[in-house]
UniProtKB/TrEMBL annotation:
The lineage of its organism: Bacteria, Bacillati, Actinomycetota, Actinomycetes, Micrococcales. Keywords: Glycosidase, Hydrolase, Signal. It comes from Brachybacterium ginsengisoli. Its EC number is 3.2.1.51. Pfam families: Alpha_L_fucos (PF01120). This is alpha-L-fucosidase. Alpha-L-fucosidase is responsible for hydrolyzing the alpha-1,6-linked fucose joined to the reducing-end N-acetylglucosamine of the carbohydrate moieties of glycoproteins. Belongs to the glycosyl hydrolase 29 family. The keyword Coiled coil does not apply.
Length: 423
């Protein structure tokens, strides 16, 4: 019997997976109106941040340990955070910097200063565009906006297409794909059209276990029953998006999630082999909320305390797994596994054992990374990793001692809203 075909990631997909952690910035006219979604009628004049500091945003993301950021260049309301030539509904019509400002440019410049990669969110659904009901006219309008973003701000790491509000609407995905291939061939495309990565299927930040990279369908948003078939199976690794607070846009009175909850999200996203995109919304000043910033600082410190001083083992690959030998006996309570993915995701099950055969941890997929928190710390100089699958190969085994570090405390009852926040 012929062995099954294994789909392989592109080098760009694999680089995105290894980046692992991004920060989302939801910012726009909704910030000033106390809304999650708006209908495109909030005056551009309401957009007037008094202390906008994109450097603070990007620096905080970097210090958290993220590798990239994604900015809502245009949300469903249609307001553009750059001076577009396609509509008057943009920063050019606002009092901010006398209409001469460009939020996208400021974030892009901050990314260059701090060694971060830039992603941009451009909502296909546009509640302000007068041409929206004319499909051909709107497709041309949208392509013009996308062209501006793809040519003005340097290399893009990710283009984020949100399926909310678009049920039953078919955009010019062929044209969109051609434009991206021409202008930003290295950018990951989120979830729609010529997608190279997919939405995880919830806004709680939680990946499935097993975390599978090959699929023939994808969800479009959190508010509709809209699982969409994509034909033949494709290699589409998932991204878990979740907000640090209840809402996506900043609103007064909301509080950030607890540190334990954020650590739990980390372990159920990055720890299962998915990417995590954590939203931290700037406030009406254009600054990060002090409570959110403090929680980001705590979160980053806790991640470094848990994973900042790992010991990598030497691997002796054998049939059915590998022996992982540490430089010397070490105390540890976390084991991180990494799979070689250049030939595709191949591990379907695995076990981590001590030399005496004691099972320390077990699971299904490994992928770009799989982090196990052990029930209790052990002191060992070697491990045996058993794997099942089609020609699986381990890339690395790293042990971590998180003694004294904050521990995950995921609120299992928490769920992000699943009702669309329409006006």
């Amino acid at each position: 019997m012929a062995s099954p075909t294994i789909l392989r990631p592109s080098p760009e997909q694999l680089a995105w997976q290894k980046a692992g952690f991004g920060v989302f910035f939801h910012f726009g006219v909704n910030t000033f109106a106390g809304k999650e979604w708006s209908d495109g009628t909030i005056p551009a004049a309401d957009f007037d941040p008094t202390e906008l500091d994109a450097d603070e945003w990007v620096r905080a993301a970097r210090d958290l340990g993220a590798a990239y950021v994604v900015l809502t260049a245009k949300h469903h309301d249609g307001f553009c955070l750059w001076p577009t030539g396609t509509t008057a509904y943009s920063v050019a019509s606002s009092p901010w910097k006398d209409g001469k400002g460009d939020v996208v440019a400021e974030v892009a410049e901050a990314c260059r200063r701090h060694g971060m990669k830039l992603g941009l969110y451009l909502s296909p659904w546009d509640r302000n565009a007068e041409c929206y009901e004319d499909a051909a006219a709107y497709d041309a309008f949208y392509l013009a906006q996308l062209r501006e973003l793809c040519t003005r701000y340097g290399d893009l790491f990710e283009l984020w297409f949100d399926g909310a509000g678009s049920a039953g609407r078919e955009y010019d995905w062929d044209g969109i794909g051609e434009l991206i291939a021409e202008l930003q061939p290295g950018a990951m495309v989120f979830n729609m059209g010529p997608a190279t990565i997919r939405w995880v299927g919830n806004e709680d930040g939680l990946a499935a276990d097993p975390c599978e990279y090959v699929t023939d369908s994808t969800d479009l948003n959190n508010y509709d029953e809209d699982v969409v078939g994509i034909g033949a199976q494709r290699y589409l690794p998932p991204e878990c998006d979740v907000s640090i607070r209840r809402g996506w846009f900043w609103q007064p009175g909301e509080e950030p999630k607890t540190l334990g909850h954020l650590l739990g999200i980390h372990d159920r996203s990055i720890g299962l082999g998915a990417n995590l995109l954590l939203n931290v919304p700037p406030d009406r000043r254009g600054r990060l909320d002090a409570e959110d910033l403090a929680r980001m600082t705590e979160f980053g410190e806790a991640l470094r305390a848990r994973f900042g001083d790992g010991r990598e083992a030497t691997l002796e690959v054998t049939e059915g797994g590998a022996t992982a030998t540490l430089p010397e006996a070490a105390r540890f309570d976390h084991v991180e596994l990494r799979e070689v993915l250049t030939e595709g995701q191949r591990v379907t099950a695995h076990r981590v054992l001590a030399a005496d055969g004691t099972v320390l941890a077990e699971g299904a997929t490994i992928g770009v990374r799989r982090i196990h928190r052990l029930p209790e710390a052990v002191e060992l100089d070697s491990l045996r990793i058993e794997v099942e699958g089609t020609g699986p190969v381990l890339e690395a085994v790293i042990v971590h001692d998180a003694t004294g570090a904050p521990v995950p405390d995921l609120d299992e009852g928490y769920r992000a809203p699943t009702e669309a926040p329409l006006d």
